[in-house]
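A quick aside before the break. I want you to see a complete sequence-to-structure record at least once, exactly as it would be stored in a machine-readable document. Don't worry about memorizing anything.
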Amino acid sequence: MENLLFNFLLTRIKKLTMRRLLFILFGLMFYTAGAQQNIKLRVFNQYEAPVDQFSVTEQGQKKDYTNNGSGVVDITITGADTLLFSAKGYSDQKISTASLRNNDTVVLKKQFSWKDLLNPMFYIVYGGLWLLLFIVFAETGLFAGFFLPGDSLLFVAGIYSENLAKEFLKLFGMAAVSSEWLDLLVLCGLISAAGIIGNAVGYRFGRKIGPAMYQWKDNLLFKKRYLHEAHDFYEKHGGGAIVFARFLPIVRTFAPIIAGIVGMDRKKFAFYNVIGCIAWVVSMIFAGHFLQIWVRNQFGFELKDRLELIVIIIILVTTAPVFWKLFLGKKKSTKANQN
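That is the input. The structure line, written in tokens, reads:
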């Protein structure tokens, strides 16, 4: 009788223990499922370009993620208080999980490299409107401005016209009256003025050194016939040479200087300088601004998310005529010499 009672009690204890264990196990499973969540995040750098590959460390566990090109990535969070975002060439970023919401943007700061100098967003992020104006001036006003990204910088400036124009309007307490057309007018006016002044400085520099250059002796880098050919070119094409030069990288840096060297008429140069600068600035700014709006409305994505590709296309399109003329001109001159 005692053995039966003992076996009965032992069996009941085992059943209770199993039930508790199962209850605890299911409780842990539901807790883990509740704590773990997926969240969509946009992971970009400070230049508003998607970070292609990055890692997220949570409670010592590191997981790698690959961007699909849109910048939106599904991140799995298992209940940690903080996440550590890291990527090669970027500074680590620690973020509280409690502050994250779906479609939030995480910005990883890209470490500086010399290639950033060719990225127009580098100048907009770190210098804004004032650095933009200096670059447009320096491209023609300073002899060493030919490497600066003029065309792509203006195109990107059109996309960010509101932010850039407000930097100027704030000086006069007019930021509140900012509007699309006022922003474009202010931006185009300021940049055109910077370009006109830059060209004028380049022209005056050429006028000063021009007469002396006609007395220079020919050497490896300088041939006096180049001056005569440049003079004939400006005589033949007139102000059109100044206007079209604005749309060609490298060429626009040296065109006003050469115009001064060969003694192009001041009034003629001034007139076409204004026409060329305004045409260049307005076309580039408007292209960036309105193409951004059209693409967003038609295809539902932002040009800002594809800036690196756009910059490459602009550089190829604007430099193609220069290289075409350079290499085709060499072939033609070689054939002419042979004949």
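Two observations worth writing down. The two ends are 127 Å apart (CA to CA). The first helix runs from residue 2 to 35. We'll return to this after the break.
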